[in-house]
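re: ur msg from earlier - yeah i can do the calcium ion complex, just paste it... oh wait u already did. ok heres what im feeding in:
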Amino acid sequence: MKIKSSALLFFLMITLLYNHVLFAQDVSKNERPNIVFIMSDDHAVSAVSAYKDWLSKVAPTPNIDRIANQGMLMHATYNTNSICGPSRAAILTGKYSHVNGFFKNEKGGDFDGSQQTFPKLFQEAGYQTAVIGKWHLGTAPTGFDYSKVMVNHGGQGTYFDPVFVENGKDTIVEKLRHSTAQVAHDALKWLANDRDTSKPFMLMYQFKAPHRPWTPNPKFDGLFAEDLPLHETFNDDYSGRLAASQNMLEIENHMNRKDLKVPPPKDLKPWQIHKYNKIGNQGEFWTPDDTLQGAALKYWKYQRYIKDYLRCVAGVDEAVGQMLDFLEQNGLDKNTIVIYTSDQGFYLGEHGWFDKRWMYEPSFRMPFTIQYPSKIKAGVHNDDLLLNIDFAPTLLDMAGIPIPEDMQGESFKKALIGKRYDSRDAVYYHYYEYPFWHKVQPHYGVSTGKYKLIHFYYDMDQWELFDLENDPNEMNNLYANAAYKEIVQSLQYKINQLQKKYKDDMSLDEMRAMTDVVIKRVYNERTNGN
Ligand code: SGN
Ligand code: CA
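and the outut:
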């Protein structure tokens, strides 16, 4: 007996030691990966050609595709709240909007930068951290050794003459370059000259483009001489979907003159130009030419819009290529995790729309691709149900930094490194902002990848059920169809479970009160930004 127990003790000690060595080997100090987290604004999956979606042939993104070819392309990455600031806050904290406190852009106050975020954890673990470009969270970035973020136009930044704040103090108006080129310039400069090369780095490289008003760098004006295709749902009539029918994000009815680059008449005063440009936002009728009306006018608006949007994407793609080239030329590519994503998806004419916010696929889904040549195999596709709140724990895990218990997302490191990974069976979503900007009714819902159930609850009580496999465009609301009763019940049960799990199990009145909250933003200067 005695011999047996000491042998057992010896065996246990050896196992512990071995595991310790394994862990240290897994992410040893001088092997810790660098991270370049690239995020654009409003870049739809359909406009990343690696996805081979409906625009891929006409609008290639060769540099973003380089990441997918050298690493993994995620096909089912979703957002917890499809709008800029809230998605960014969810990414930083690994927590849902109602937990991190930043649940709407408009009158929702600013991000509480004193809370735990993944950049802070990287910084505490000895990384050099930086954020360059779009931030859009109001308060100055925390957890970064270096920050240079756009603050004008309500924190959105502008395509030309963007105003940046560096390290929370110095204001710089950049007049030399288009916003995308400026962000690329600043990020490469920081990497090449300014960082502390004795430490690994975690850089957030974030673009304003291709956000509204879709103003590209003029060097891309020559792209898209031919007209671009229309999505098959371009003329959706929203039948069976009441919330969708009450929107204010139709290309036909809610695009303004500035969006479509209609120059104001000469000799207008600045306030008159502002007023002129905004016409269209509230559904006011306008046409650039009286002979253009009806379907032809809608078609004209779409072509103007989509071409400028994709020209902005071309700028982002170029900036991604510059980053990849830099890493390769400096021998940093093998040990650097590079991610390309967007804060959410976007409508490129699907359902006749622009903008985001809905839990329907084009805005719910996010592009996500990742390369890390020393650990992730090249050219792999992944279909696991992932969320933006998973990014923080995954990056921490990849760097060997402990994941705090209170993060609500889950690490998908195993999926990345080719190990067995049991992904979640459903993703939960909650959107709050209403009625500004685009009159999208607050809603929550769940998607299993096969079925999606949504509840629009603010000042209506509407449920929508979609069979995603047979109706990927979500045109056919099956909620009232008796044949789907059991599926509805099981999805409602799933919603209840996930609301409890994520602590979003409040009453509808409490949820409505969040929509009604009015807290001013800090970065709210009015500019005539373009
Ligand atoms: C601005 C846009 C809206 C857009 C929001 C949110 N109007 O207000 O169309 O939905 O931003 O975008 S604009 O005329 O000012 O461009 S987000 O990316 O910040 O969420
Ligand atoms: Ca956005």
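cool cool. DSSP finds 15 helices and 15 strands in the chain. ping me if u need the other ligands too
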